[in-house]
């Protein structure tokens, strides 16, 4: 049996991925060597009849438990997590009220989470011998294939076997260099393959920074923790600033971490970054990768072999020992917040990571989140701005098309359809944006504009078709569904935003002589698929692009001159207090798609309520003024970011059980901390999406003046909730919840 050297048996204190907020003690596996036990290694452990992958936190000599089981097997020799990344995960576990074992699980790529061996991906590398290194690039001129291979190895250093294959170097050429003792195979840990094979683009001279960009860069300190919010419209040159910051960090021998939204990591983006840094190794971490590839990229980054790590949300947990900066692009994007399991925000954790490492954090967006904007306006973050478009493109013209009382064809005003037709006939491209996300239907009258208001709150009632009811999600007022408008008795009532499928059918039919490219989750399973789908649009032929928010960003489509926003209203009247913010961001981003090239752009926004002050503000003064107004509204309503907010969620096939559980949770909360002006409770109320996958979802909302007080309260609530024995009921704490 392993001992700690002093004769007492060593005990392993492990983080196990189970929903219990504590660590678990085990004896070391049979016959293991205590000198080989290091925190950060993975172990297989028995747990409740199952076998789980746990991470070693600590080695102790005593356990409060009398009977300890031995762990089954040690997986790693080299720890996967160092002290600093473990501390970071613990901080996140505390902040989000999550079991630390679940944070490790969230941090690990799937293959490693399932216990695959880390050295499974050890690579075969082709590198030059001393003799090979002594040759000039012009050597082997009589064997061009061998010469090309020699040049590659001289310029970019050792190459992995799969990468050589990707670049098209033949086995014969490799054999020849080996036979001449100019090159040799070595085994070594994996490094990510350099992404760029695009020799034309590689090494392209970067543009000269304009004055604003230079000021922005100068304001970011080299190696001190600061958070900067970079606010700049689409095309104002933010990405160029990121590239320069990365360049600085790389020159310093450090690593750069760039977080991008789920739909932002397009092959286009990757190519642009790879082209700027030829010869540097770039690890891309995203859900489009096969499990093995992703684990390989993660391990290479953790082994200091990646200079740049680009990834979506979970890349924030990649252990980087030489971190030089963290950049979050499109920081307002909802995909940075995990919506199940550990409900962390990668954007917010980026700030913590930067603080721990003592390096600058840069948050960039054309449409900053109210959270970041608030921090920038109150001076906690540095507020940097780019006010002009960097290239020649001019800002688009925006017009509201009032739809009330108009003869709409499947949701489109006649003049809008006419504009689409004319655009296509001129040989240009049109983009029709259909907002479906976060949609909480409320009822509206098509003739007089009546809306189903709550008599007790300043909010709309939400349509619940199943119960044939209209309900208020703020105070739980309910009334039966009506068949006719209470104001004008018209029977033409519609759920705001509904009928998108029919709109799509109409456009496809009406403009059948042009390619209609539909972009949404269903048509684009992968990034490559999207890239391919958009190829005709990039080629510049007249076509109609039709889609959801996937179309809103990241694609440079210079021939799009008309953007149509079918319905701006849904988001303005949702029961979700964040809906106007999201709508504003989306509208601004979509509008930014128009006129990216030399051709001027036009944006048509359909609305039943052209006089709506928020819509007016957005379209006339832009997102900046709009967002500042929303911040004032949030202050009045005592909502985030002026208040800290958390939800206690529960879901169950039996609605009654979820409601009862949360009712009891609220009683527990009120017993611990009675409601006051500084601490307020709401609920249980049904979630906006009340039923999902056959489960009914409810929440209790807590808003607090002091984050610390809220944290302490939630920690105690979790202790109580862990006692829940109803296996069919799931509960969770959602700190800084983004969705209701
Ligand atoms: P953003 O990320 O804010 O949308 P980009 O950095 O992608 O903006 O810049 C928009 C376009 O302008 C790109 O084609 C980019 O190459 C170009 N650009 C950026 N900075 C400059 C500059 N200083 N001079 C000339 N062109 C620039
Ligand atoms: Zn009416
Ligand atoms: Zn109400």
Automatic annotation (TrEMBL):
Zn(2+) 2 binds at residues 454, 457, 472, 475. GO terms for molecular function: 3'-5' DNA helicase activity; ATP binding; DNA binding; hydrolase activity; zinc ion binding. CDD domains: DEXHc_priA, SF2_C_priA. It catalyses: ATP + H2O = ADP + phosphate + H(+); Couples ATP hydrolysis with the unwinding of duplex DNA by translocating in the 3'-5' direction. Residues 187-208 are annotated as: Disordered. One of its GO terms (biological process) is double-strand break repair. Keywords: ATP-binding, DNA replication, DNA-binding, Helicase, Hydrolase, Isomerase, Metal-binding, Nucleotide-binding, Primosome, Zinc. Component of the replication restart primosome. Initiates the restart of stalled replication forks, which reloads the replicative helicase on sites other than the origin of replication. Recognizes and binds to abandoned replication forks and remodels them to uncover a helicase loading site. Promotes assembly of the primosome at these replication forks. This is Replication restart protein PriA. It comes from Microbulbifer rhizosphaerae. The lineage of its organism: Bacteria, Pseudomonadati, Pseudomonadota, Gammaproteobacteria, Cellvibrionales.
